[in-house]
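REQUEST FORM: STRUCTURE PREDICTION
Request ID: SP-0412
Submitted by: Lab K.M.
Chain count: 1
Length (residues): 181
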Amino acid sequence: KSVPFTMEADSLNCCILAPGVSVEDPEFDLYIKEVAREMTTKAGQKCTAVRRAIVPQNMTEAVGEALVKRLQSTAIGDPTQKETRMGALVGKAQRDDVRAAVEKLMGCSDTLLDGMDGIQLVGADPSKGSFMAPTLLRCNDPLNITTPHEVEAFGPVSTLMPYDGIEQAIELAKMGKGSLA
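STATUS: Completed
RESULT:
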């Protein structure tokens, strides 16, 4: 006598850098590599892509700089080309949806890397594909600004969120309510 109910609330869309990790630690490099990989694999069009990169307050600049550097080196274009590491989005409607979500996120975040325009492609014509470069944002007040916890850009987009103390990191992770947690 129960009512069937289905809800997707199982995506792991955040990645937390532990407090105490420094730029010299192998965990730092692993964090940068994993966030960038999650953003670019399948052009970020998967449920488990990292949408929220939660980092200690004192590491926000270093993580932002390292991610921007790594993401800028991502070759985008024709997936049959050896050097290509990221292809196009599903279609123009998908790209438009991602861009609309990014615009909402940009309204409450700083833009560290803007993937909306000026994409250099490998072996592809930008007018014939739905390409979008990685976009990295930073929300400086993620405890009080809820947009990055509620809006999911289903593409190569992630938002850095600083935290003070592991309890705050856990609180930020919970703010995704399953869909972005």
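NOTES: The mean pLDDT is 92.
Reviewed by: T.R.
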